[in-house]
Design brief:
The structure is a homotetramer of 467-residue chains. Chain A is of the alpha/beta class. The first copy, chain A, contains 13 helices and 21 strands. Chain A has an eight-stranded parallel β-sheet with strand order 8-11-12-13-14-15-16-17. Chain A has a seven-stranded mixed β-sheet with strand order 3-2-7-18-19-20-21. Chain A has one domain: Metal-dependent hydrolases (TIM Barrel, Alpha-Beta Barrel), CATH 3.20.20.140. In chain A, helix 4 crosses helix 7 and helix 7 packs parallel to helix 8. In chain A, a hairpin with a 2-residue loop joins strand 19 and strand 20. Helices cover 30% and strands 22% of the residues of chain A. The longest helix of chain A has 18 residues. At the A-B interface, strand 3, strand 5, helix 8 and helix 13 of A face strand 3, strand 5, helix 8 and helix 13 of B. Strand 5 of chain A pairs antiparallel with strand 5 of chain B, so a sheet runs across the interface.
Chain lengths: 467, 467, 467, 467
């Protein structure tokens, strides 16, 4: 016997279309869209009159339970995915980060273990490659076959995760061969190291120096270089957490040349600025992340980049650390502040209010940047990323009339502060649905631990992008 | 009693989505999309197994029954829309072109008269503005209210249709005020005049001089100027029949600056080159149009422009003249060759074969450039331009297995040659459906004269484009 | 018997070199440069110890005794060249401006008559071409043969001096054929007309609207178009009185493409800003000129343009009108304010203080932009524009220790205000020498009316620029 | 008693000026320029009637007696400077290249020892910095004080000379502090390493793979990065042996932004192309150098770069190895071919014929790129680089009527082949004069070993460039 749900009277928005229709869900899949649909007794019925129905959010950049900088990120797969659900996100993609020398398979297994049975929504994995050698290259086909078709490379974190251009070229070529996509953290690690050493030598240790040690020029340079190397390798490229106009211009220039370069930005770069580092004393540590917040003038550029298609998605880079006990590890030395902010539960709400309602994104663009973009880039479409017959019934149903506010008191992150505290919200998700289950209502979690499933992602096929 | 049609087993492609679903149509509207839909006795059922279903094509640039250069274009609204139907196009937008001094309302009435009761598919109008004065400006609100929300301006045809920059600024400002969109024919009319006078003085009268008198630089310059004037006026801009990289780069640069500039190209610029002018003697007159065919190197640039979103649609600029008796008027003087080619019946087929099948466009991009783009730009969405609940059941259903060839013998244009004669087609429209009626099957017209309705188009609202 | 002068102990600066040497002059020519030169009794000896010797200034853009906008410019060839001499300028190039219908030869003759016997320094002519027709084109070779090898075209002043792009192409081609150089006043006259009509209709008549009616976009657009037309014609181009970054970027882009585009700016654009229009009531009329003063941010760009070689010279566009009685004609209608400012006597001083002493120009660059650049562009080199054996002994000898101030009380212009009133001067010309005659000492005129000679300029040969 | 020379009847060309004058030289200095100069009995008189007199050439990039890749370059300071003299070059600047760990002072001393008493013309030194550490940084002020005010950094030769971006930033900052100029070898060493490893793994060992392992993209990328790092450090930058449009565009873009970036190219990049690698079997090894020869299309771009001032000088990177015995070390492994070509004796001749006579450079530009540019950039002006009173009498006097041909038989290099064999020469140096001594006549050496003196170069002062 099938499990049916009927969602009536809503208006549906996909990346391209806007239409009023009822949605019939069976066994977690959308099976019918139509006017005046009916259902049998015993089936769940949701009335979405006056509401806006979007594909469930996909956050393609999270770091749950990540050992990093001498501690472990505060949200694990349980708290992180619960917060995601409450905030309208029904799929997350976390980064497997192997230790140097560790077999990739072992790292993947460890990540499966962290996640299995704990997640409230579906999840998938990227893998980071902090080194390149024969063993790593030999393991890549198996990794891709397991549904991990994107490789993250770091051009920053010199001496730790950073690889050099020779290694990056090797990975780009291997990714192309195995139909995977290379994602880069684009900051010139040498420039950062240079600046951090100087500041250390000069006794400049406060968190306000973190941004000075991570200038936008370093991100622009790395973006330029990564794009050139990808062109040279004939490989597609994805740039994560793009934060500034310097990098955006490189991405746009590549698009003008016809190169396949994709990029994501994050809510923090769209909404917050480096001014936060200067007026908050050590509390600025809350926003210490890499890349850092930028000059406010970048924000309009990034919004325009989303609107005009140079940026295809917004992810959070959620990597939460408590201010007490964790961020405080960097008192007296900003280089010891664990990098990252919470956000997985805030992203969809922030983009709805500050994007759609503020006139910076159409509702279709909102559907694209919260869900469809990442689904297509990372091989999860059409199961995820749209509201269409045959797709998973992953939905976020916005009540545009309900107002709220971002606060540490109300988001479900397992961390002691909110990066967006006090931001007014103009419209809230009434229902968040994961494969036909209502996992959150107006911000309250109604799902269950373990509901989430692992998603094997498809390969990246440049031909599908006509490249 | 309702008129129902069920289209079963097809795969549907919209500008963003791809999914398998049956389509239920009632009274010309799509009312349901779903798996395993059923219908009652007496309803039409089409089996689309193995077929690809797209939104019906929209050709936003036709000139039917146009008095031009001392003759009248060969296809009228009857033959033109019948050819459109046979070729997968279910909506056309024709240009009302008033004479100087004529009231706009009179010109619009004349165009209505030409079309009324004759068309096989739905139709709408743009209006051209060959002069600007107090009367013209005063009439614009009424024109927009009548559903004609786009104004065409000519930067070429000096002494005839061409307006100057002062006038263009006036129209841009008026269009912005009245929520209409300005379309420009972007060629520097002074440059063309200069060259035509020179060639005339030098006795260079063959059709091969037409292209030399219409250099790509003239189009690039005019595009640059129109874009700058639009920016200065704070108005959106649409560029019609963009033919060359010189103009495309201006459009792309504007997008990088965040300006709202939209543009269409045509199949002839994507597929044919100026070499045709050089090897065919006077037969080259068949391809005399403005802008002319360009150097072949432009073609890849234009395809990339469609793929990457710098160009949003493909229209035909269909303006057919018989070679015998019409094109021949220009024997001995290329300036007297009536400008234009037939194409309304070929566009969708050409783009399917040379775009989708050749790997230059995804199926979603194909849906966008043949239909969704124009629908959104010209205020016809969501009635037209997509396959969604509530939309008109305007569909083109491709049988990818059927092969064909473009030929004057098979297209339904009322003209004695084909501009694309001999082009192999890899996939053909099995069914073309206009508001639930099958108007063509495998290229044979099955519709009826007068089925087509006039579409009042909505205003252009820049806020919907987040501008 | 020869007339000898020995200038001892100075330091000489040319466009490329800096060296200490004595200068021996015979019959107005430099015949020897060397250490420890000696001369005979009766010869003039100037001691330039501690002083800097530059080639005499060339102001390639003056309008003396010009009938314009219903009046005549206040400085004629007598007062204008006397002021030039006092201010370090030993050559001026004035514009012959024929009336429409007037034979060019007649206009040239009229200009010769205005100048003959009156000038204190040497002079040459450009010719403006306010219309293009067979007669005008036929006269050009004779004009060039008479030493007038540059043709000025106006893209502004619609309905008066403005020509269209067809005409501009004709002139570019004719200039190329006859080895002359086309100079353009680059503003889009249609845009200006559009704005002036609007302001008139809105009752905006104050001088502060002059700048709003002459936006930088209009200059950038015209520069772009002129450069493209010149490229199309294969002709070199010179842009006069370039005032803004919008136009400068077009010039620089052309240089990057390898095109031969030369340009001059003026002291007013380097030193004054549009703020003057807003804070002075009708007194702002003093600075009403076309192009107008620009936003202050342009100034650094223009200085950099001079330093980096994108701009080759600085001229004044001297066209002086008394505030009383002349500028006042535009009270109540800014369009009737005679356009122009005085400056021929200030240019060299302003560039020395604000260029050399302020660290924006090297002494060699100063020599280039006040003299060598114009001499080479306009066919007056090597007689003019350098300090070398065989050149005319036209020199401006700066005393870097002497300080002064620009003021209507001290400049020798025949006009009732100074555009640069109060500008402090750090260094002044001790001696100004024209063909071996001291025509000014520390700002006092010591020359004589009629000393100046007409200079027949050489043709413009693009091959000398390796184009 | 002074040593006098009079050069009569020649035409003199400097970077800015062209004039006819006699030149009087006393004790190696130019003391007088003038018409009809006379001299006493016993003085040397050269008749330069019909000849062109230029400043003696400066080759700012030589590697004499350089231990490199397991051998030593074939020309030492004796043979190299003798060839220079015969070829019109009167100053060379060689690179001191310390071993890692070696004190800079020791390396400088070693270079002095190689040169002292051996050179036919004057010489100066740059220093290369293959590593950065506290000792190196501490030694820099002394190096600058000794007249070595330019530091060479390698972005290529990974594992040997290459430094990373952190080190480059350190050197840029140190150079700025000590008023020195950083020169970079701009190739991305990681890319080269990547490609060389691949080719080695694939058994691709012939010299034709050298160019494939050194793609133009790698040079463009490194130029972009070096320019960005210099901007970040607020330091000027010089790029050596720029070979391709990819890098040239970066330099030009920097100039447009107002950044102080200087660059040299070499005759081989202006005149030879990568085709030589493909058609000569192992003989291609003769042209193995880094950067390699490029696609022929780059040549016009580089000539335009010189003409338009984006490139300021032409040096040779002379580093000669005999084909027999030295180049042959790389048979079977292109990575073992000693990199470099001879050229110090050919440069001035090649630029005269292929630049001046071919219409690509004016005679003034020729003076600039063979001499004045390097003199000013590297602190040797005005002693070197011009023909002016007070300057050293270093001159190359061209007889434009004499024809010749480049050949290993006639150049004076101590090496068994010529890189430009067979190039026709249209004009030859009749006399080459170093500080008043004729060191070569029509290619025959007339100087003496040990005549050359060490030049202490001045510091680099960005303020002199108005930066």
């Amino acid at each position: 016997m099938t499990n049916k749900m009927l969602i009536k009277n809503g208006t549906i928005f996909t990346a391209a279309d806007s239409f009023s229709a009822d949605i019939l869900v069976e066994d977690g899949k959308i099976v019918r869209l139509g006017l005046g649909l009916e259902t049998g007794s015993g089936d769940t019925v949701l009335d979405a009159a006056g509401m806006e129905i979007y594909p469930g959010g996909i956050d393609a950049h999270t770091h749950f339970a990540l050992p990093f900088m001498g501690t472990v990120s505060a949200d694990d797969f349980e708290t992180g995915t619960r917060a995601a659900a409450c905030g309208g996100t029904t799929t997350i993609v976390d980064f497997v980060i192997p230790a140097k020398g560790q077999k990739l398979a072992a790292a993947v297994a460890a990540w499966h273990e962290k996640a299995a049975g704990k997640t409230a929504v579906d999840y998938a994995f990227h893998i980071a490659l902090p080194e390149v050698n024969a063993q790593v290259l030999a393991e890549l086909p198996a990794v891709v076959a397991d549904g991990i078709s994107s490789f993250k490379c770091f051009m920053a974190y010199k001496g730790a995760l950073m690889i050099d251009d020779d290694q990056l070229l090797q990975i780009l070529r291997a990714a192309k061969e195995h139909s995977a996509l290379v994602s880069v953290h684009a900051e010139n690690g040498d420039m950062l190291t240079h600046l951090m050493k100087r500041f250390a030598a000069e006794g400049k240790t406060g968190p306000e120096y973190h941004v000075l040690a991570h200038p936008a020029e370093a991100e622009g340079e790395a973006a330029h270089r990564a794009i050139l190397l990808a062109a040279f390798a004939g490989a597609p490229l994805h740039i994560v957490h793009l934060s500034c106009d310097e990098a955006l211009r490189e991405v746009a220039a590549a698009k003008l040349r016809g190169q396949l370069v994709l990029a994501e930005t994050c809510p923090q770069y769209l909404l917050l600025s480096e001014d936060l580092y200067r007026k908050n004393g050590f509390e600025a540590a809350k926003w210490v992340m890499s890349p850092p917040l930028r000059a406010a003038a970048n924000q309009d550029k990034l919004w325009a980049g989303l609107r005009d298609g140079f940026l295809q998605s917004v992810a959070t880079d959620h990597c939460s650390f408590n201010f007490k006990g964790q961020k405080e590890m960097g008192k007296g030395d900003f280089m010891k502040i664990p990098n990252g902010i919470p956000g997985v539960g805030d992203r969809v709400n922030l983009l709805y209010t500050c994007g759609v309602r503020a006139g910076r994104l159409t509702r279709n663009q909102f559907a694209a940047v919260i869900a469809a973009g990442a689904a297509k880039i990372f091989g999860m479409y059409p199961e995820k990323g749209t509201v269409a017959v045959g797709s998973d019934a992953d939905l976020v149903i916005f009540d545009p009339a309900r107002k709220g506010e971002v606060s540490v008191r109300t988001t479900r992150h397992n961390v002691d502060y909110s990066a967006f505290e006090g931001q007014r919200l103009d419209g809230l998700p009434a229902f968040v649905i994961s494969r036909g289950k209502v996992v959150a209502k107006y911000g309250e979690f109604t799902g269950e631990k373990g509901h989430g499933r692992y998603l094997k992602r498809k390969k990246f096929d440049a031909a599908e992008w006509c490249h």
